[in-house]
Amino acid sequence: MQTPGIVRRRTAERRRDTLERLATERDVWVSTAHPDHGPHQVPLWFLWDGRALWMCTGAASATARNVREEPRVQLALPDTLDVVLVQGEVRSFPDEHVPADAADAFAAKFGWDPRAEEGAFLYLRVEPKTVRAWRGAPELRGRVIMRDGTWRE
Questions:
Q1: 51, 70, 91, 129: which one has the fewest Cβ atoms less than 10 Å from its Cβ?
Q2: Is residue 15 part of a domain?
Q3: HEC readout, the chain
Q4: CATH for 54
Q5: Which stretches are transmembrane (predicted)?
């Protein structure tokens, strides 16, 4: 299948473009699964701190329940013409135990601080283990730009 207007990027270009999107975008699709309840997918706001993605959800949400049972997740930026998929494992932080620098940066980015809300929230930190990025069929080959937590050159 040909995708008109797509010029195949080198791995370094894909990495640069992916890092730029992680630094500037707001939303990510979070896919989790639970052994008894099955798959679950939800969009969440995220913050990229240069090493990991930070998200926040209600402590009683299906996402929170799922990552307590199965911490492996897949994240997807919401653009089917410029795909970025991130796989990793969640480290969970109740709002009273989240590192202040991460929570402060999250609040600054979105103008909303879950720590100030009633009810419990859970911060989710995902350090990428695998990242895939492609724009159309010309870039399917070579789409893995991070493997085992190491960026490819």
A1: 51
A2: yes
A3: CCCCCCCCCCHHHHHHHHHHHHHHCCEEEEEEEECCCEEEEEEEECEECCCCEEEEEECCCHHHHHHHHCCEEEEECCCCCCEEEEEEEEEEEECCCCCHHHHHHHHHHHCCCHHHCCCCEEEEEEEEEEEEEECCHHHCCCCEEEECCEECC
A4: 2.30.110.10
A5: none
